[in-house]
Design goal:
- Helix content is about 30%, strand content about 15%.
- The protein has five helices and seven strands, in the order E-E-E-H-E-H-E-H-H-E-E-H.
- The model has no long low-confidence stretch (mean pLDDT about 95).
- This is Glutathione peroxidase.
């Protein structure tokens, strides 16, 4: 089984088989509009614009599971992303990304690329780890998604080749993306 075996509904409600992305390098990310990491939309869009013509696709999955940081409708999400960050990459309908109700894509991604911890030498890593330890200690157990803006990198054959936690700036993914392109 690989990424191409799944499907999801685009933010406009149309179903899309992930096999439509065969031959592309993909960044798959769970997103939220009211999160401290929300500005990552801007860097994701920069990366998308720079590398899309070389075969990169970015797909965003809004999620409201983390402190209800994505409370709006799919239409609200679309408008927010376009107005505030000029997002042109594909967004999908809001889904759950962890727990029993997690979308199959994120269950698969979480098992394909294990959680390696946060970089505790970085302020964001230290902060997120501390906050989760205090408020949601169960989130730190296992390989599930820990917070908004967890990013997965998928090669042209549909294999998950990297996991980048929310504290990793999307621009720090560029060298790995360039290798795959």
């Amino acid at each position: 089984m690989n990424f191409y075996d799944f499907s999801a509904k685009k933010i406009n409600g149309q179903n899309l088989n992930m096999s439509e992305y065969k031959g592309k390098v993909l960044v798959v990310v769970n997103t939220a509009s009211k999160c401290g990491f929300t500005p990552q939309y801007g860097d994701l869009e920069k990366i998308y614009k720079k590398y899309n013509n070389q075969g990169l696709e970015i797909v965003g999955f809004p999620c409201n599971q983390f402190l209800e940081q994505e409370p709006g409708s799919n239409k609200d999400v679309t408008e927010f992303c376009k107005i505030n960050y000029g997002v042109t990459f594909q967004l999908f309908e809001k889904i759950d990304v962890r727990g029993f109700s997690a979308h199959p894509i994120f269950k698969y991604l979480s098992e394909a690329a294990h959680f390696q911890g946060f970089n505790l030498n970085e302020p964001n890593g230290k902060f997120l780890n501390s906050m989760l330890k205090e408020k949601f200690p169960e989130y730190l157990i296992g390989n599930s998604i820990k917070w908004n803006f967890t990013k997965f990198l998928i090669d042209r054959e549909g294999n998950v080749v990297g996991r980048f936690e929310p504290t990793v700036d999307p621009l720090d993914m560029v060298p790995k993306i360039e290798e795959l392109l």
